[in-house]
Amino acid sequence: MGEPADPAPRQRTLLLRARAALPVTAPPLRDAAILLRGHRIEAVGAWRNLARGYTGRRLDLGEVLVLPGLINAHCHLDYTGMAGLFPPPRQFTDWIKQITVTKQTWSDEEFRQSWFSGARMLLRTGTTTVGDIEAVPALLPDVWRATPLRVFSFLEMTGIRSRRNPQSILQEALGRIRTLPEGRCRAWLSPHSPYATKPELLRQSAEASRQRGWAMATHVGESAAEHQMFTRRRGEMFEWLKRNERDMSDCGNVSAVQHLNRQNALGPHLLAVHVNYLARGDCALLAGTGTHVVHCPHSHSYFRHRAFPYRTLSRSGVNVCLGTDSLASTFQPRDQPATLSLFSEMREFAARHPKVGPANILRLATVNGARALGRAGKLGELAAGAEADLIAIPFTGGSRAAARAAVTFDGPVLASMIGGRWAIPPQTP
After folding, report:
1. Residues 358 and 244 in one domain
2. I want to staple 89 with a disulfide (CB 3.0 to 4.6 A). Which of 94, 243, 302, 410 is the partner?
3. Residues 256, 190: one domain?
4. DSSP characters over 97-116
5. What is the chain's mean pLDDT, rounded?
6. Closest of 343, 348, 323 to residue 272, by C-alpha
7. CA–CA separation, 176 and 174 (whole Å)
């Protein structure tokens, strides 16, 4: 994939011009200008104002809409190459079994190429930052160096099948993280889920993350089977895990969200992924603890889950953002290859939630994701002081049509900049 082109010296300035800009945290701008200094945005405004008296480099991007780079809060880049391998299952546990068996047959090189393929897809479809669940930590940090993306790699931890001590699992992950460089990319923790990890691992991982100021990700409330397992001590997941000698004493009269709360795992550090099934009181717990929720629309449709409770979550004050999940849990179109795209996820969300306006949908893929990853004010918006992460898409309309144009866009971006460097250089007029 190579290094990003056109490195930007720290203090070099560049004034970009575009037909329109969509800052997300401010109204859209017509005939817009964005002043960059090094890796940050210095100002955003009307061209006539920012160009007056400016003597540095200028670049007119032409008939485009500039918006912040999209933030994919949940992905599994390792599984990109599994697209189309698994038809939608009748039972959620059937899919778990299929992907587990497939993973055991793959080499590190196959995972590496799969990771690269997914990263390329994300880059050309507008993502500039991704929260990625890393199941093969041996790939790090080499894959980081091969992409201009900002990557937050959440190291996946389980432990039910291996029957390993939670403390040993956590210390191994922390030891690996200590060997990795910190910069544009970094590694954090991801105890897989309440059903696939012991309570001690959830509790200890949350404590370690809070102490270090890290975000943490876990899958929770994903399936009806998991919901039934925790709330009623029954169902196919309960019986399957019981046969595999999981200690089921943590199940019964409690939801998966409430189970996390018992382990002191909820909080502003946590990205609770999926949260498709809620029990009474769960929204209040998520909102009260500042826990973030990541919704993956295409994956949600693939598993035929009940309607995602967006309205309930958002009205409760929960920060909801978007992720692509992996291509191992999406439909394989007949007429075109499946791709990882937050634009596609926004379109799917819009189709499922027609009462949510495009401006709010765009926030799910930008500022809300930045907040979940602890980067509020730095990523996901075009504003003074934010990182110079931006993308450009074709646009010939007026500023009032900007948000709808962004949410309905389908295609590769015309340009992408990450940290003041062109990841996809523009083809200027």
Report:
1. yes
2. 94
3. yes
4. HHHHHHHHH--HHHHHHHHH
5. 94
6. 323
7. 5
Q: Mean pLDDT over residues 209-215, rounded?
A: 98
| Pair 143, 44 in one domain | no
What distance in Å separates the CA atoms of residue 292 and residue 217, rounded to the nearest whole number? Answer: 10
Q: Which of 426, 316, 390 is nearest to 24 (CA)?
A: 390
> 179 and 119, same structural domain?
yes
Q: How far is CA 354 from the centre of its chain?
A: 22
Name which of 159, 129, 135 is nearest 375 in CA terms: 129
Residue 149: closest CA among 115, 110, 176: 115
Question: C-alpha angle 304/305/306, rounded to 5°?
Answer: 120
pLDDT reading at 5 higher than 60: no
Residue type (1 letter), 214: W
DSSP letter, residue 343: H
Q: Kindly state whether residues 165 and 232 are assigned to the same domain.
A: yes
H/E run at residue 289: helix 282-289
- Is the pLDDT at 334 greater than 90, yes or no? no
In sequence order, what E strands does 275-317 have?
Answer: 292-295
Is 334 found in the same domain as 394?
no
> What CA–CA distances, in Å, run from 246 to 103, 162, 202, 255?
21, 11, 15, 17
Q: Where are the beta strands (DSSP E) in 167-324?
A: 186-191, 216-220, 270-274, 292-295, 320-322
The single-letter DSSP state of residue 406 is: H
**Cα 255 vs. chain centroid, distance in angstroms?**
24
What is the reported pTM?
Answer: 0.95
> Which candidate, 387, 393, 394, 412, places its Cα nearest to that of 8?
387
Strand, coil or helix: 24: coil
Q: Which residues constitute the domain of residue 92?
A: 70-372
* pLDDT tens figures, 245-303: 899 999 999 999 999 999 999 999 999 999 999 999 999 999 999 999 999 999 999 99
Which one, of 334, 403, 396, 338, lies nearest residue 364 by Cα? 403
> How many residues are given for the chain?
429
For 249, the token pair is 């004493």
In angstroms, what is the C-alpha Rg of the chain? 21
- Identify the pLDDT of residue 9: 44
Contacts of 249 (CB under 8 A, 6+ apart): none
Same-domain pairing of 318 and 410: no
Which residue matches tokens 């962004």? Answer: 406
